[in-house]
Amino acid sequence: MPVLLTTKLSIRLSLVATLTLFTGACSSLTPTVSPTQSVVKAPSVALVLGGGGAKGFAHVGVIQALQENGITPTLIVGTSMGSLIGSLYASGMTADDLEQLAVTTPDSALIDFTLSNQGFIQGIKLKNFINAKVAGQSIEDFPIAFAAVAAEKDSLKKAVFTTGNAGLAVQASCSVPNIFIAPRIPETIGKKYIDGGVISIVPVDSAIELGAEIVIAVDVTAPASSNNTNKLSTLTSLTSFWGLLENNLASTANASASKNSRSKVGELQRADVMIIPDVGHISSLDSSQRRALIEAGRTATTSQIKVIKQLIAEKSNSKYATL
Question: What b/e readout covers 228-265, taking b as 16+ CB neighbours within 10 angstroms?
Answer without folding.
Answer: eeeebeeebeeebbbbbbbbbbbebbeeeeeebeeebe
